[in-house]
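A student in our group prepared the protein record below, which I am reviewing. What it holds is a sequence and that sequence's fold in token form. My question to you is simply how this chain folds and whether the tokens agree. Do not assume that whoever made the record got everything right. I have pasted the whole thing underneath without changing anything:
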Amino acid sequence: MQESFSFGPVFDRNSKILILGSFPSVQSRAAGFYYANPQNRFWRVLAAVYQEAVPETVEEKRALLLSHGLALWDVLERCEIQGSSDASIRGAVPVDIETVTREAKIRRVLVNGTTAAKYYARYLEAKTGIPAVCLPSTSPANASYRLERLTELWGAALLRKEG
């Protein structure tokens, strides 16, 4: 297994919801940006929730996130991983979550799948003080969830009013 590294977060001072994946896939690592595998439904789900066109470029993806107060990162900064398999993760090193929480007033944390939830609970929840909402993974490996159901569940979490 080879050690791989993630890339930095997408956020600004207006970000209120932090979405965390586990670790970038092979395609995302090659592209240098999140959810680059065209079979991953992440960008289609967000576009449907916010009733916008599916973003194609990195700039469009960043704009979609930031225009809705979203921050995006992964739970792990680096690890040893075989391909894109979360099950193969070894030597996990968490991100410095304060990079985001120092500058943005994060009110809610959503995690993309159970692996992200596990590592968030283990390494980061005590630092943020915010329990994560675990959503079904948008990965193509999660074939039990259709796009419509993912959009419904993610939309309920993203559009929930504070309070």
